[in-house]
Design brief:
The two termini are about 35 Å apart. This protein has one domain (about 5-255): Glutaredoxin (3-Layer(aba) Sandwich), CATH 3.40.30. It contains twelve helices and six strands. A six-stranded mixed β-sheet has the order 1-2-4-3-5-6. The protein is of the alpha+beta class and about 260 residues long. The longest helix is centred in the last third of the chain and has 16 residues, at about 200-215. It is globular, with a radius of gyration of 17 Å. The protein has helices spanning about 5-15, 25-30, 35-50, 65-75, 100-110, 110-120, 140-150, 155-165, 175-185, 190-200, 200-215, 245-255, and strands spanning about 80, 85, 90-95, 125-130, 225-230, 235-240. Helix 4 runs antiparallel to helix 8 (about 155-165) and helix 8 packs across helix 9.
């Protein structure tokens, strides 16, 4: 089964379970970001996609899921740090996210793959993930761990694999064992170096820096997006687009 068909199957399953979802405070992260019709669309999206965030599955360091799917998604796409795509791409899409955020997880599974498989793979755009810590104390070390994986060219493998194995937020699952298991599953070659660098000041300071950057831009929830390109008005804030089509349209407009 292709990755796209797998995403479609997950969407159908989530539709069936929509009435069972109790989004709670997770939904409020995006409710703050919308206005008018877009606001209503985002609410609908969140109701559908936070099912995973309410699940007790995931967070198992001994049983990582979807390693091959992640490898397939980013295979052959250039990576530098936490930037995915051709370094010379004219459009840069910036995502501010928290690895413990269930809505970020849903975007990584349901929204961004279409963008990656189209405009990123064809060299039109690159995606720059920047940590924006809002969930809890384990989010910072998780973000630094992703940056350390990025230093070895496996940053997006790490991000995607973490999301696909994300546990219930603030449940304590994102400990050192889990972070190391994700690094290994993501294909980080030098785990000793990764472990040292993930705890060093270079990357922990970077997590703080990008979180403060997101706040200065006025973002209050995750995931939040910004874009810049030849035809954008400098750095344009997108907030939380409601679909991959909306992101793809923003990339076209900025190109």
């Amino acid at each position: 089964m292709s990755n796209k068909r797998e995403r479609e199957k997950r969407r159908e399953e989530r539709l069936q379970e929509e009435t069972k979802v109790d989004a709670g405070d997770r939904r409020t992260r995006l409710l703050q970001l919308g206005a008018g019709a877009v606001f209503l669309v985002i609410v609908a999206v969140v109701v559908l996609i936070v099912v995973n965030g309410n699940s007790d599955s995931g967070g198992d360091a001994t049983n990582l899921q979807e390693v091959s799917q992640v490898d397939s998604l980013v295979k052959g796409v250039p990576q530098e740090g936490l930037v995915l795509g051709d370094p010379k791409a004219k459009v840069e899409l910036i995502e501010y996210g928290d690895l413990q955020c269930p809505v970020c997880k849903a975007y990584s599974e349901e929204v961004l793959p279409d963008v990656i498989e189209n405009q990123v793979q064809n060299g039109q755009a690159k995606v720059d993930f920047r940590n924006f810590i809002i969930i809890g104390p384990q989010s910072g070390p998780a973000g630094a761990a992703a940056l350390a994986a990025g230093a070895q060219g496996r940053g997006w493998n790490y991000l995607e694999l973490f999301y696909r194995n994300q546990g219930k937020e603030n449940s304590g699952y994102a400990d050192e064992e889990f972070l190391k298991a994700v690094a290994k599953g993501a294909g980080v070659k030098d785990l000793a170096k990764w472990e040292t660098e993930s705890k060093g000041t270079k990357f922990t300071d970077e997590v703080t820096k990008t979180s403060e950057e997101a706040q200065r831009l006025g973002f209050s929830g995750t995931p939040s997006f910004a874009i810049k390109g030849p035809n954008s008005n400098g750095l344009e804030l997108l907030g939380t687009p409601e679909s991959s089509a909306a992101i793809e349209e923003a990339i076209e407009d900025a190109s």
